[in-house]
Amino acid sequence: MQVTDASESPFAEKRSAAAEDVRAREVPSASRIWGRNAGGPEPAPRRVVLLGSTGSIGTQAIDVANAAPDRFEIVAVAAGGGNLELLAQQAVHTRANAVGCAAVDLPGLKAAIARAAAEASVTGYDPELFVGAGAATAIAAWPEADVVLNGMTGSIGLEPTLAALAAGHLLALANKESLIVGGALVKQAARPGQLVPVDSEHSALAQALRSGAAEEVDRLVVTASGGPFRGYRRQDLAGVTPDQALAHPTWKMGRMVTTNSASMVNKALEVIEAHLLFDIPLERIDVVVHPQSVVHSMVQFIDGSTIAQASPPDMRLPIALGMGWPHRVPGAAAPCDWTKATEWTFEPLNEDAFPAVRLAKEAAASGGTGMAVFNAANEEAVDAFHDGLIGFTDIVDTISAVLAEHTESGPLTLASVLAAENWARSAARARCGR
User: What pTM was computed for the model?
Assistant: First the structure.
C-alpha cells in the first residue's frame, strides 16, 4: 500500500529531531539473523535502481534515500512516462547513471532531462537513456546496482522482475502482480534471500517470521483496513460509485490499487503473495479486518504465540527495510506514540460481501495461469467500473466468470502467462461491454 501522491514533492530532505536522535545513538552489537549480519549499517551505500520512480513508492524511496545518503545511492530510474517532467527532475536530482521511459521517444526524454538540468543549474549531466516498451526491463538489469526496487503497478512489471533476478540483484518487490501472475517462474528465478517484500503486510510478516523457525509457524494473519465499505453487506455494494470506491480511509494510492482495496481484490492478491513468498499453504493464511492499519500483519506460532508488527501507516518504513534488507534504517519512519491512549480493533472478513479472497485462493490452488487470468480480468473490470460500464459488485463477478471459462494450455512459461493474460483481458472486456 502507498501513502504519498506522486504529485507531491518527491525530494523531501527534512528529518525530524527524533530521527536525528536515533542516528546519533550507538549501534547495538551485531546479531546473526537468517545467516546475515543485521546489527548495523553496511560499509558503503547500496546502489539502488527504482522502477516506477514517479509513482508513490518511487517518490517515497527517493525520500528515504535523501534522508539516508550513507545507506542508499539512486543509480537508475525508470517510469512509464505519465509524468515525464517529474522523471526528468528525479534523474537530475539523483544524478542517475541510467534513465528509462516507456512512453516517450529518445529526443523527448533527452529534451525533458535537459530542461530539468537547466532549471536546477546542473551542467554536464549525461545519463544513458532507454526508451520504449523494454525500458524498465533494461533498467532492471542495470549492472551498476545492488538492489532493484520494483514499484511498478500491474503485471507489466513481470519482465523487469525476471530481468532483475537474472542480473543477480536483490529485488525489493512492491509490484506484487509480477510475483502473483509469474508464480513459479519468479520463484524459480530467485536465489534464496534474493526476493524481499515491500508491501507493508509482507514486510510485517518477514519481520515477524524472524521470531521462530519455519517449522514453528502455524498461520499467517494478513490484516486489512476494510477500505471505505467496511461493514457493508453485498446488497449495500450494488450502487456504490467510483468516487466512493476511491475514498480510502487510511491509504493514499493510485486508482487501481485503491479500487482493489475497496473490493478486497488487493487483499486477495496479498494472500497469494504471502503464500508464494513464505511457502505457507493457502489454508493457513487468514485475513482479519483491522481498520486502524497499525498492525500490518501477524504470525501465529505452534505454541499459541502471535507476533505482530506495528507501526503508523507510513510506507517509508517497509521501503527502507526492503532496500536495506536485512538491515534497519534508523529514523526511516515515526514509531507508535505509546504515551497516548489508543484502541486497536480486529474483526473477521465478511466473505459473502467480499468473496475475492476465497476466489483468489481457488484460482491459485488450481495452479498454472489461473492467477494471471484473475489479475488481468480484474484490471479490465476495474477500468470498466470507472468508465460506468459495470457496477461495483460486477468487478469480482467478472473475475469469477472469466476464471470459469479459463482452460490451461501447457506448461507455465512467460509466453503462456502473457497469452493467458491477453485472453483474459479480451474475455473480460467482452463481458463488460467494451
Answer: 0.86
